[in-house]
Amino acid sequence: GEVPGVKYIGGAAITELKEVEGCKLRVVLEQPDGASSTEVVDEVVCCVGYRPDMSIYEELQVHQCYASNGPIKLAATLIGGSGDCLKQVAAGVDALKNPEPGFFILGSKSYGRKSSFLLKIGHEQVRTVLDSIAPSSAA
Known about the structure:
Layout: E1 13-20, E2 24-30, E3 36-41, H1 72-78, H2 93-96, H3 119-133
Antiparallel strand pairs: 1-2, 2-3
């Protein structure tokens, strides 16, 4: 239903956001049909959702979790986590492997739609994969 003082504008993209009149915001919106509109508001709440763009590897052999859209092996390790994302540790190179030889999905894309990704985990993923593919220096 309607909520007094709240206006829902679905499907629009914010193209400009600027503070005006003290604490107000001028928001320029682009509608899906290309029309543009301007609103002056107190607050903006964006409910954007997130789904990774998988088009770059849609022709490769990648097993994805149906629930999160992340690589299946990593998604399996993330199920039933502690709930505290700050206590996460990187899952290791085996959880990052796919059926596609030599192809790894790293960083925020590796978590699919899960919101618990931390940049420190992404850095650790990159280190782990590079260590696994680099020739051993102990020869």
